[in-house]
């Protein structure tokens, strides 16, 4: 079997070009790249005096917050499923 | 009722101080801040020639990737739960 094709995407973030590579689909890379790029633009629009490093750090913190909140929700659901599965086995 | 207390946390990221504020607990802010700070240190360690903006953008992309993958998993679980609930109602 041939090695899995690597996707590659060039994306502009805060005026600099970044190359995303991965075994994920090109659509996935585009989704992730645009998600980050849009957030950078948004933070810059709201704080035009901030430098690019500060903007990128604030975006990292923002995404980390969304990630952590989703992770907490995810873990709650997995725990509920575990309980449901137990009840199912007992009942 | 008094307004909900806002938490505040000072954190060092890439040699700069950032102040995180929110209605989340101080422990939560610390978790998110350390998560980002650790990733910055890791990327810097692996790429010491990169400037701080590039490091912060790469970390944003990394966290966005983790977030997107978790989101896809989360949506799958929610969909499974919906199907299970339907089966339950029919059966």
TrEMBL record, chains A, B:
InterPro entries reported for this sequence: Bac_CellDiv_Activator, Cell_div_ZapA-like, Cell_div_ZapA-like_sf
Record Pfam families: ZapA
Cellular localization per UniProt: Cytoplasm
Keywords recorded for this protein, A-Z: Cell cycle, Cell division, Cytoplasm, Septation
Key word Nucleotide-binding present: no
GO annotation terms (biological process): cell division
Subunit: Homodimer. Interacts with FtsZ.
PANTHER family (alphabetical): CELL DIVISION PROTEIN ZAPA
Function: Activator of cell division through the inhibition of FtsZ GTPase activity, therefore promoting FtsZ assembly into bundles of protofilaments necessary for the formation of the division Z ring. It is recruited early at mid-cell but it is not essential for cell division.
Protein known as: Cell division protein ZapA
Gene that encodes the chain: zapA
